[in-house]
Design a protein that fits this description.
About 25% of the residues lie in helices and about 40% in strands. With about 120 residues, it is of the alpha+beta class. The protein has a single domain, classed as CD59, CATH 2.10.60. Strands 2-1-4-3-6-5 form a 6-stranded antiparallel beta sheet, with no helix packed on it. A hairpin with a 7-residue loop joins strand 1 and strand 2.
Amino acid sequence: MGKLLVFCAVILAGISVGTALQCLKCSFTFFDIPCHTTTIICEADQVCATIQGTAAGQKLIKKRNCVDKDKCNTNETASFAGVSYVTTYHCCEGDFCNSAATVPSTHLSLHLALALLGIWLTRLL
């Protein structure tokens, strides 16, 4: 009976309840100058993205944020301070995937640790 309870606890711990996608947000930077980033949580229909604005073949503007999935792999033309530029949306689906370095997901680490603890406890009982 004890093994069954431990097994059920491990399975329930592995189910993520309402895990939301976390991304980095960088409001605005020019010419790939490092930008102060913050962590944001995307809405259900959004993914992480790196948004680049190019003008005259030069990458001028970069942002990081959550965007609606329908913007992924699209281009928009806009202007800023009298300069026309094309905005490109590079999307990804994974916690902090819009950063230059990958940040491990704490949700996965917690679930893995709980599963290993459950297996270890099952062998002891």
